[in-house]
Every structure is written in C-alpha cells, then in structure tokens.
Design brief:
By secondary structure, this protein is of the alpha/beta class. The protein has a single domain, classed as Ribonuclease Z/Hydroxyacylglutathione hydrolase-like (Metallo-beta-lactamase, Chain A). The protein contains three helices and five strands, in the order E-E-H-E-H-E-H-E. Helix 1 links the parallel strand 2 and strand 3. The protein starts with 5 loop residues before the first strand and ends in a 9-residue tail after the last strand.
C-alpha cells in the first residue's frame, strides 16, 4: 500500500493485533495487507483511527460489512473514526467487541 503505515504484533495464543494511524488507505485495506504480510496468522484486534468521519462517512456501511470477514475479537476505534462510524460498528459487532479509544485509556487484549 502506498502512503500507509501500521504496526502489527503477533500475540501468542491470540493472533495479530494491528495498530493503525488514520488508515487513509482504508482500514479494510490495512487489514488485508497485514494478512498478506503475516500469512496464516489470525487477526485478533485492530486499534487506531479508521478515517470514517466527514467526507468519508459514505463508506461506513461498506466498511462495517467488510470488517465482518476478519473475525476480529476487538475493534478499538480512535480519533478520526467518527461517532457515526463508531455507532455503526457497535450496532454491528456489539460493545464487547467495539470500544472507542481515548487518551489514557488502558486495554488488555
């Protein structure tokens, strides 16, 4: 992917945790690329901004639908995800899977 960065950590007995910045290339594309980089490793969680606020709100339904295919245990949405996208993700996956991130919040995966 051009102009996109992420950090992936393979957590023993869990799978891959992907940390993304703003996901300008799309969080679905980021997760697909992480899967290519780590073939055979299950995707466990994603954390970061999903860039779904403002002018990109139109792709929220498609993004939510495409995220279903990854079987993620945790979706931790940050800064530029936007409240509409976080609400749509919570409706689709539940509040046990989707958690909004915030400065100083601690997560245990």
């Amino acid at each position: 992917m051009i102009d996109e960065r992420f950090l992936a950590v393979h957590v023993r007995n869990k799978g891959l945790v992907v940390f993304s910045g703003c996901s300008h290339a799309g969080i679905v594309n980021v997760l697909h690329h992480a899967g290519v980089c780590f073939p055979g490793v299950r995707l466990h969680a994603v954390m970061g901004g999903f860039h779904l606020a403002g002018t990109t709100e139109a792709i929220i339904p498609a993004t939510v639908n495409d995220l279903r295919g990854f079987g993620l245990d945790h979706i931790i949405a940050g800064h530029c995800t936007g409240w509409r996208a976080i609400a749509a993700l919570e409706r689709a996956f539940g509040d046990q899977v989707v958690v909004p991130s915030a400065v100083g919040k601690l997560f245990s995966l």
